[in-house]
């Protein structure tokens, strides 16, 4: 890893840093990390500017919806991490990320790492491991007992935008274990942080 890494929860005062990571187009064709937050119909109707405003309104509320990663003070990465209930489309019965137990969808101690994004020049440098570590630390500090993810086993290249869900290898390296696989190459993985309170 090049430079000094640190991460911070995304609070309203860091919105400009989030914009840097998302880029002028809002990453992933103007998504602004709303894919798991808005229904398919809502996303289809919303412009990139409306998706940006939707996400900015979410950042204004507590708790922070994820963490921003920095190298030498420069924002470069984003991980969306929070309770499953905060990303409703991640829980849809038709998705590969749906919970093993329906109650997990509304359990404030069951969290999801649902999206990764990095600036172009920082992709392919192994920084996903540091970002995931920061996301897990944030979940632990916020009282999560389980953190789940539904990453991708393969992409055509390490810099592929399709890896917005994260690659399997970084989750495995962080101690996540496969608990289900509803589609080839997209395992539901889980890290146990502690017992229920």
TrEMBL record:
InterPro entries given in the database record: Acyl_CoA_acyltransferase, GNAT_dom
Name assigned to this protein: GNAT family N-acetyltransferase
Domain of life: Bacteria
SUPFAM superfamilies cross-referenced by the UniProt entry: Acyl-CoA N-acyltransferases (Nat)
Keyword list, A-Z: Acyltransferase, Transferase
Pfam family, one: Acetyltransf_1
E.C. numbers: 2.3.1.-
N-acetyltransferase domain location: 33-194
UniProt enzyme class: transferase
GO molecular function: acyltransferase activity
């Amino acid at each position: 890893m090049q430079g000094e890494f640190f991460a911070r929860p995304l609070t309203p005062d860091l919105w400009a840093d989030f914009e840097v990571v998302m880029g002028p187009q809002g990453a992933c064709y103007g998504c602004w990390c709303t894919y798991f937050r808005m229904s398919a119909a809502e996303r289809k109707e919303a412009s990139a500017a409306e998706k940006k405003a939707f996400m900015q309104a979410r950042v204004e509320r507590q708790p922070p919806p994820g963490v921003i990663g920095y190298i030498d003070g420069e924002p470069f990465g984003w991980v969306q991490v929070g309770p499953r209930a905060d990303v409703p489309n991640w829980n849809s019965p038709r998705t590969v990320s749906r919970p093993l137990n329906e109650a997990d969808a509304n359990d404030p101690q069951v969290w999801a790492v649902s999206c990764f994004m990095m600036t172009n020049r920082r992709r392919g440098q192994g920084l996903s491991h540091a970002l995931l570590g920061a996301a897990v630390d944030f979940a632990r500090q916020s009282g999560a007992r389980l953190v789940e993810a539904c990453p991708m086993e393969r992409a055509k290249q390490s810099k592929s935008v399709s890896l917005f869900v994260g690659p399997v290898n970084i989750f495995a390296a962080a101690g996540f274990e496969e608990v289900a696989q509803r589609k080839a190459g997209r395992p539901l993985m889980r890290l146990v942080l502690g017992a229920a309170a």
